[in-house]
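Table 4 source record.
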Amino acid sequence: MITQAPLITFVGTTPNIGTTIAAFAAACRIAEGSEASVGFLCLNLKSSKTHRYLGVDKPEATLDSLRPELRSESLLPEKLLRSMHPASIEGRLHVMFGNIMRDQAEFFTAEEMDHLLDVARLSFDIIIADVGAYWDNAATLCALRRSSSRMIVTTGALSHFQEDAQRWIKQLSPMFGISSDQYETVIIHPPWRIGGFQVKDICNELGVPLIGELKLTEPMLSQLDTGSLDQWLTLSEQGKEAMKEPALQLQSRYGLQRRMGMPAQPWYKKLLTHRSGVST
């Protein structure tokens, strides 16, 4: 039996709060901190901007360009790889840009999305999927149902972590067989103040554990406009810290081999100490 790679899906409570940034930053951290091949799937069918964030204004291939293969369930790993953008992390991170034909979003079927996920999980060691914040499409529902880990991204705004989260993960999600306790949360902190709620208050309201936080800054947001998000995440000292802790947790959770030459992180040192210094 062929073992499929873990699928980590990031879904936002609210549009335009930083879900794509969190998902892509996590993918970068895993790619640079492990020996794993990482596939990043932009499954945002209605508001895909990943290509612009990476400075590819006219991508040669996007999710909608794979529709013929998805319809006939004939997509091969080689074709998928050729349709993905190689990010600048020593060939370990490949990005599939999302649908740019917004009027076609509702026409993607569950069968097409399942086929894409099957092929992707056989092609990489780990898959990071960004589905945005819209639930009325096959990509969001299929990715969430099949996920190994589900990340709900929100902010400290009451309308985001209470009202929007209540509508999605507490009311709608269980209808598709995913209970609210099957999520973890990533809390986004924008440069501007949007609420006085503490992290523990947000987690208590959501009823899910915290996996990490991401502070958005003006320099980070400016990278989105210039199409250099990947460079900022991998070259700037501030960018290198984005989603670092969540990525380390995911690497450990799924047994991804730590990249040779990378300094041991505190959790790894503690593990070695517990095992009397013997690494397995």
